[in-house]
C-alpha cells in the first residue's frame, strides 16, 4: 500500500488542522493505521492508531483529548483532527499502515509509511 499524507501547514496556537492520509492499493480496510510525529532532534513519537473496525487508541500524554483519529474505509483514507494546537505540536506528521489490526505504539510495528506533512504552530 502507498500512503500520501496531506493537510499540514502553519497555524496559530489554539487553532485546528485536519490531516488526511490517502492510501492506494488494495485492502485498505485490512490495515491498522497510525499517526506519528517527529520534531527536529527528537525521536518519532506515537500519536494515535485506529483499528480496522474503527476502534482507536491515543498517546494520552501528548494529545490529551485534543486529537481525534478516524478512518473512512470507503475512501481509503485515515484522518487526524487536531484541535487546540500548541507550539509543541510542531513536527512532521506521518501516517503508517500495519498489516496487524492493532499496530500498537511502536513504529517498528508498522509496515508502510507516508512521506510526512509539516505542521507548524506559532505562538
Question: How would you describe this protein?
Answer:
Helix content is 3%, strand content 50%. It is mainly beta and 123 residues long. Strands 2, 4, 5, 6, 9, 10 and 11 form a 7-stranded mixed sheet that branches. Strands 1-3-8-7 form a 4-stranded antiparallel sheet, with no helix packed on it. The longest helix is centred in the middle third of the chain and has 4 residues, at 60-63. It starts with a strand and ends with a strand.
What is the CA-CA span between the terminal residues? 37 Å
Overall outline:
globular
Topology as H/E string? EEEEEEHEEEEE
Radius of gyration: 13 Å
Contiguous low-pLDDT stretches (5 residues minimum) are none
Major pleated sheet: 7 strands, mixed
Helix proportion of residues, in percent? under 10%
Quaternary structure state of the chains depicted? single chain
Number of strands: 11
Supply the helix-strand structural class.
mainly beta
* Proportion of residues in β-strands: over 45%
Mean model confidence by pLDDT: 95
Number of helices: 1
Quick summary:
With 123 residues, the chain is mainly beta. The protein has one helix at residues 60-63, and strands spanning 2-6, 9-12, 17-24, 32-38, 45-50, 56-58, 67-72, 77-82, 91-98, 112-113, 117-122. The strands form two sheets. Strands 2, 4, 5, 6, 9, 10 and 11 form a seven-stranded mixed β-sheet that branches.
Amino acid at each position: 500500500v502507498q500512503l500520501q499524507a496531506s493537510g499540514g501547514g502553519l497555524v496559530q496556537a489554539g487553532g485546528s488542522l485536519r490531516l488526511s492520509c490517502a492510501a492506494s492499493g488494495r485492502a485498505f480496510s485490512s490495515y491498522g493505521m497510525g499517526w506519528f510525529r517527529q520534531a527536529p532532534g527528537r525521536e518519532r513519537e506515537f500519536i494515535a492508531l485506529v483499528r480496522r473496525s474503527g476502534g482507536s487508541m491515543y498517546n494520552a500524554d501528548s494529545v490529551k483529548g485534543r486529537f481525534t483519529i478516524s478512518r473512512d474505509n470507503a475512501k481509503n483514507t485515515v484522518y487526524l483532527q487536531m484541535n487546540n494546537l500548541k507550539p509543541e505540536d510542531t513536527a512532521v506528521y506521518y501516517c503508517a499502515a500495519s498489516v496487524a489490526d492493532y499496530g500498537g505504539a511502536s513504529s517498528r510495528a508498522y509496515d508502510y509509511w507516508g512521506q510526512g506533512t509539516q505542521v507548524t504552530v506559532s505562538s
